Protein backbone atom coordinates (compact mmCIF):
# COMPACT_ATOMS: atom_id res chain seq x y z
CA UNK A 1 0.00 0.00 0.00
CA UNK A 2 1.52 3.31 -1.07
CA UNK A 3 -0.25 6.56 -0.14
CA UNK A 4 0.08 9.72 -2.20
CA UNK A 5 3.57 10.61 -0.97
CA UNK A 6 5.10 7.22 -1.75
CA UNK A 7 5.64 6.25 1.90
CA UNK A 8 5.21 2.51 2.36
CA UNK A 9 3.05 1.35 5.26
CA UNK A 10 4.56 -1.99 6.23
CA UNK A 11 1.53 -3.39 8.06
CA UNK A 12 -1.75 -1.56 7.63
CA UNK A 13 -3.63 -3.70 10.16
CA UNK A 14 -1.03 -3.24 12.89
CA UNK A 15 -1.13 0.50 12.27
CA UNK A 16 -4.94 0.45 12.38
CA UNK A 17 -4.90 -1.46 15.69
CA UNK A 18 -2.35 0.97 17.15
CA UNK A 19 -4.43 3.98 16.09
CA UNK A 20 -7.56 2.43 17.62
CA UNK A 21 -5.86 1.69 20.95
CA UNK A 22 -4.21 5.13 21.00
CA UNK A 23 -7.60 6.79 20.47
CA UNK A 24 -9.06 4.69 23.31
CA UNK A 25 -6.21 5.73 25.62
CA UNK A 26 -6.51 9.42 24.77
CA UNK A 27 -10.31 9.35 25.10
CA UNK A 28 -9.84 7.71 28.50
CA UNK A 29 -7.45 10.44 29.58
CA UNK A 30 -9.85 13.10 28.31
CA UNK A 31 -12.83 11.55 30.08
CA UNK A 32 -10.80 11.24 33.28
CA UNK A 33 -9.88 14.94 33.13
CA UNK A 34 -13.52 15.76 32.42
CA UNK A 35 -14.69 13.62 35.34
CA UNK A 36 -12.46 15.38 37.87
CA UNK A 37 -13.30 18.85 36.54
CA UNK A 38 -16.23 20.82 37.84
CA UNK A 39 -16.32 23.45 35.07
CA UNK A 40 -15.44 23.64 31.40
CA UNK A 41 -12.55 26.00 32.17
CA UNK A 42 -11.05 23.45 34.57
CA UNK A 43 -11.34 20.75 31.92
CA UNK A 44 -9.62 22.92 29.30
CA UNK A 45 -6.82 23.82 31.72
CA UNK A 46 -6.47 20.18 32.80
CA UNK A 47 -6.20 19.08 29.19
CA UNK A 48 -3.57 21.73 28.53
CA UNK A 49 -1.64 20.72 31.67
CA UNK A 50 -1.65 17.10 30.47
CA UNK A 51 -1.04 17.55 26.74
CA UNK A 52 1.86 20.02 26.73
CA UNK A 53 4.17 17.87 28.90
CA UNK A 54 2.89 14.68 27.25
CA UNK A 55 3.91 15.89 23.80
CA UNK A 56 7.17 17.42 25.05
CA UNK A 57 8.14 14.21 26.86
CA UNK A 58 6.95 11.78 24.20
CA UNK A 59 10.29 11.48 22.45
CA UNK A 60 9.12 13.65 19.58
CA UNK A 61 11.32 16.64 20.39
CA UNK A 62 14.12 15.04 22.40
CA UNK A 63 15.20 11.42 22.88
CA UNK A 64 13.81 9.71 25.96
CA UNK A 65 17.22 8.12 26.57
CA UNK A 66 18.66 11.60 27.27
CA UNK A 67 16.15 12.27 30.05
CA UNK A 68 16.93 11.55 33.73
CA UNK A 69 16.08 8.04 34.93
CA UNK A 70 13.17 9.17 37.11
CA UNK A 71 11.65 11.02 34.16
CA UNK A 72 12.03 7.98 31.90
CA UNK A 73 9.85 6.06 34.36
CA UNK A 74 7.23 8.83 34.29
CA UNK A 75 7.22 8.85 30.47
CA UNK A 76 6.21 5.16 30.45
CA UNK A 77 2.62 6.17 31.30
CA UNK A 78 2.47 8.52 28.32
CA UNK A 79 0.36 7.00 25.50
CA UNK A 80 1.84 9.42 22.95
CA UNK A 81 5.32 7.95 23.54
CA UNK A 82 4.15 4.42 22.79
CA UNK A 83 2.16 5.50 19.73
CA UNK A 84 5.13 7.40 18.26
CA UNK A 85 7.35 4.34 18.69
CA UNK A 86 4.80 2.17 16.88
CA UNK A 87 4.25 4.63 14.03
CA UNK A 88 7.98 5.17 13.59
CA UNK A 89 8.60 1.43 13.62
CA UNK A 90 5.84 0.58 11.16
CA UNK A 91 6.68 3.34 8.69
CA UNK A 92 10.47 3.25 8.81
CA UNK A 93 11.71 0.01 10.34
CA UNK A 94 9.26 -2.77 9.37
CA UNK A 95 8.47 -3.45 13.04
CA UNK A 96 7.23 -6.95 13.85
CA UNK A 97 3.91 -7.66 15.55
CA UNK A 98 5.75 -8.75 18.72
CA UNK A 99 7.52 -5.40 18.97
CA UNK A 100 4.26 -3.56 18.26
CA UNK A 101 2.66 -5.52 21.10
CA UNK A 102 5.37 -4.35 23.53
CA UNK A 103 4.17 -0.78 22.99
CA UNK A 104 0.50 -1.61 22.46
CA UNK A 105 -0.20 -3.28 25.80
CA UNK A 106 0.84 -0.23 27.91
CA UNK A 107 -1.65 1.84 25.90
CA UNK A 108 -4.31 -0.83 26.54
CA UNK A 109 -3.61 -0.65 30.28
CA UNK A 110 -3.77 3.16 30.22
CA UNK A 111 -7.06 3.01 28.28
CA UNK A 112 -8.60 0.43 30.61
CA UNK A 113 -7.57 2.27 33.78
CA UNK A 114 -8.58 5.76 32.67
CA UNK A 115 -11.88 4.64 31.14
CA UNK A 116 -12.77 2.58 34.23
CA UNK A 117 -11.91 5.35 36.69
CA UNK A 118 -13.66 8.00 34.58
CA UNK A 119 -16.84 5.92 34.32
CA UNK A 120 -16.77 5.29 38.08
CA UNK A 121 -16.29 9.02 38.78
CA UNK A 122 -19.13 9.93 36.42
CA UNK A 123 -21.44 7.39 38.07
CA UNK A 124 -20.54 8.81 41.51
CA UNK A 125 -21.33 12.32 40.30
CA UNK A 126 -24.76 11.23 39.01
CA UNK A 127 -25.81 9.71 42.34
Automatic annotation (TrEMBL):
UniProt cross-references to Pfam families, sorted A to Z: ABC2_membrane (PF01061)
InterPro entries reported in the protein's UniProt record: ABC-2_transporter_component, ABC2_TM, ABC2_TM_bact-type
Domain of life: Bacteria
Membrane topology, record value: Multi-pass membrane protein
Membership in a protein family: Belongs to the ABC-2 integral membrane protein family.
TM segment ranges: 12-36, 43-64, 70-92, 104-122
Range of residues in the leader sequence: none
Provenance organism: Gallibacterium anatis
GO cellular component, one term: plasma membrane
PANTHER family the UniProt entry points to: MEMBRANE COMPONENT OF ABC TRANSPORTER YHHJ-RELATED, MULTIDRUG ABC TRANSPORTER PERMEASE YBHR-RELATED
PROSITE patterns: ABC_TM2
UniProt KW keywords: Cell membrane, Membrane, Transmembrane, Transmembrane helix, Transport
Subcellular localization, as worded in the UniProt entry: Cell inner membrane; Cell membrane
Domain ABC transmembrane type-2 stretches: 1-125
Record-given protein name: Transport permease protein
GO molecular function, one term: ABC-type transporter activity
